[in-house]
Amino acid sequence: MANSASGVGVVDECKLKFMELKAKRCFRYIVFKIDEVSQVVVVEKMGSHEENHVDFTNSLPADECRYAVFDYDFTTDENCQRSKIFFIAWSPETAKIRSKMVYASSKDRFRRELDGVQVELQATDASEMSLDIFRDRAH
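Request: output the structure for the sequence above.
Response:
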């Protein structure tokens, strides 16, 4: 099903891998990209549960847009272990204008496909998705 705003669709693998992350905690993160030829969102990379926030931020290209989900584990003030799933719309300043427009117009439709995202972030550089920001948004 294509997005009415941008014409971009979503392959089933995106939803299936997200469900695995959410239900089984198989992955720490998933990076998605829009395939420019077929105009669908596809899974680009999955990070193992042993990977961390640094591995995640390093997996995002410096000059191309991406979507990503990150399973953030933290401890509450009451010393309880918690986890929140973040959706990140990565749109670096150096990305091509057309790419930024396609990702921006497809984001809401794609985000709705991922049932269970708890926090959403827009980031144009690594500082906008630092560990401190994850920590602040998770509480």
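Strands lie at 9-10, 27-35, 40-48, 66-75, 81-90, 119-123.
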